[in-house]
Amino acid sequence: MLELLNLSHNQFSGSIPSSFASMVSLSTLDMSYNELEGPVPTTRLLQNALASWFLPNKGLCGNISGLPHCYSTPAANHHKRKILGWIFPTVLVVALGIVVAFVVMILLSCNKRKPQEGVTTEARDLFSVWNFDGRLAFEDIIRATEDFNDKYIIGTGGYGKVYKAQLQDGQLVAVKRLHQTEQGLDDERRFRSEMEILSQIRQRSIVKMNGFCSHPVYKFIVYDYIQQGSLHDTLKNEELAKELDWQKRIVVANTVAQAISYLHHDCSPPIIHRDITSNNILLDTSFKAFVSDFGMAKTIKPDSSNWSALAGTYGYVAPGIFGVVVLELVMGKHPRDLLDGSLTSGEEAMLVKDIIDQRPTAPTTTEENSLALLIRLAFSCLESSPHTRPTMREAYQTLIQRPSSSSCPVHFSALTLQQGMHVGI
C-alpha cells in the first residue's frame, strides 16, 4: 500500500485530482513547489494536513491552516481566471510602478528627515517577508551562507545549528538548519513544532520567524537576527555584564514574564515553551530581550489531563524555571549553589546584598525595591508544590505593579534568603 507520496518540485499545473480521496492508505502527500491551483480535495488524509505540503503553489485554497479559504465554485474560478488573464498584466505593471515610486519617495524622504528611518525599515521587512515565499529567498540564503559553511555558524539551537546570513538587500537574518543525527525523528519533530508554532504567534518579545524551508534536502527556519546574543553569554562577559545594569535586568525579567504569560494565557490553545533558560533569551544591542528556541514547545488543551501533569514536572519550566532565570539575573550566574543550599547552612541566613552581582553599579533605592520584589517572586515560583506557585499571568502582573515602601517593608540590605531555601523545580 502506498503510504508516502512526494510530488514536490515537478511543475505540475491545474487542480489536484479528486481521486486522491480514494487513496485511504496515504499518510503523507507532499505537493509543494508546483503550479497547482484550485481547492484541495476534502479527504480524511487531508483533515490534519500541513500547509507546507502545498506551499508555494499557484493558487491552492482549502480548509487547511495556512491556505486561503475557497469562497467560489470551480466554474466561477474558471471564469475569473479568463478575466484575470488579460487584466492581470496591466494591473501588475501599474502596481509595480506605484511600489517603485513609493520606495523612491521613502528613500528621498529618509535622506531629508531622520525620523522617517523607521518607515524604511518597516518597508524593507515587508518585502523580505514576501521574498521568503519563493525561490529567490531560498537561493539568497544558500548564497549568503555558502551552502551553510561552518564559518557562518553563530550558535546551536536544540535540533540544529544557527547561521548568520546577510541577504542581498543587506538585511541580516539568523537561519537555524536541521542537522541529521541519530535522533533524526526527534529532531524532525522539534523542527516542525517550532515551524508551526512560530507561524501562529506574533508577540514583540518573542523572536520573529520570517520564513521556513521544509524540503528533503534543506530544512531551515529564518528569524530576525538578534545582535547581542544570549543572556547567558552576556552575563559571562565582564564588560557586557556591567552594561546590563539593574534597570535593564528588571526590564528583562518583566519582558520574559510577559512573553511566557502571552504563551500560557493569550494563545488558544496555550503554548508551553518547556525550555526557558538564559541560553534561549536573546538580547539586542540595547539589551531588549526576546524569547527564542521553540523546538521543545507544545500546544496543550486546557481541559487535557496533560495540563496538570505538565504543571508538576521539570518539563513545565514556567513558572519554575522563570524563577531560576530571575535569580540568575540578580546573581549574575546560575543560582544552583543557592538552590541546593550550598550558600547557607543550619539556621544561618544570607543577606541579599551579599549574593547579588557586584559588576553593575549599586542599585538605587527604587531599584532595590524592584529587586526585592523580583527575588520574592522568584522564590514563590520555585515553591516545591506546583499548586502553590503563581501562574505566569499573576507573576507578570506582580512585576508591572510599581514597588513602594508599603509593598516592600523589609529594607533591601537586610533582606535574607533563609525563607527560600527549600524549593523545587
Automatic annotation (TrEMBL):
Its main location: membrane. It is an enzyme of class 2 (transferase). It catalyses: L-seryl-[protein] + ATP = O-phospho-L-seryl-[protein] + ADP + H(+); L-threonyl-[protein] + ATP = O-phospho-L-threonyl-[protein] + ADP + H(+). The chain crosses the membrane at residues 83-108. It is found in: Cell membrane; Membrane. Keywords: ATP-binding, Glycoprotein, Kinase, Leucine-rich repeat, Membrane, Nucleotide-binding, Phosphoprotein, Receptor, Repeat, Serine/threonine-protein kinase, Signal, Transferase, Transmembrane, Transmembrane helix. ATP binds at residue 176. Residues 148-399 form the Protein kinase domain. GO terms for cellular component: plasma membrane. InterPro entries: Kinase-like_dom_sf, Leu-rich_rpt, LRR_dom_sf, Prot_kinase_dom, Protein_kinase_ATP_BS, Ser_Thr_Kinases_DiverseReg, Tyr_kinase_AS. It is a single-pass membrane protein; Single-pass type I membrane protein. Its EC number is 2.7.11.1. One of its GO terms (molecular function) is ATP binding. It holds the Pfam family LRR_1. This is non-specific serine/threonine protein kinase. It comes from Aegilops tauschii subsp. strangulata.
